[in-house]
Design goal:
alpha/beta; 4 helices; 25% helix; globular
Length: 157
């Protein structure tokens, strides 16, 4: 029996997020306690976990909501930086959160300090530039009924 040749191939960091909107078209973003920039709800895809399963798990951990997101909106390849390896980041469609779902949002005290509904312009003032581009692409893909591929938050083609 031969060894698995894929074990020696490069690995990539992966993340999965969910775009939730309200009835006014604003996006839900969260404020981590451990960094200055806000985020889209979501997080790291763990070893052996699919991006979709990670999105479901992270939303439950971060917001206390059990949801089944819809289709994939964004795949974003992020190049390496001195402090991070390259990665693939995904954003799924969480749709419009109903009032009863919003009322059930519970944040983990050690991880998130707050959440907010934001327009794209408001979110751009709270998110990193990269994440603001990704959020805008997700909002556009959601409205158009499409999915997009990005590199560092920019359309690749």
């Amino acid at each position: 029996m031969s060894a698995d040749y894929t074990a020696g191939l490069p690995g990539k960091r992966m993340g999965a997020g969910v775009l939730f909107t309200d009835g006014q078209g604003r996006a839900l973003i969260v404020e981590p306690v451990y960094k200055p920039d806000w985020e889209i709800p979501g997080g790291t895809v763990e070893a052996g976990e699919s991006p979709y399963a990670a999105a479901v798990r992270e939303v439950e951990e971060e917001l206390g909501l059990v949801v089944r997101p819809g289709r994939l909106l964004v795949t974003d390849w992020v190049p390496p930086r001195p402090d991070r390896t390259d990665g693939l980041m995904t954003v799924f469609d969480g749709g419009v959160l109903a009032a009863d779902q919003v009322a059930r949002i519970r944040l983990p005290a050690g991880e998130l300090r707050g959440w907010a509904w934001c327009t794209e312009a408001e979110a751009a003032g709270r998110l990193s530039a990269l994440l603001a581009r990704r959020l805008s692409a997700a909002v556009e893909a959601q409205a158009a009924g499409t999915a997009v591929y990005l590199e560092n938050g920019f359309p690749a083609a």
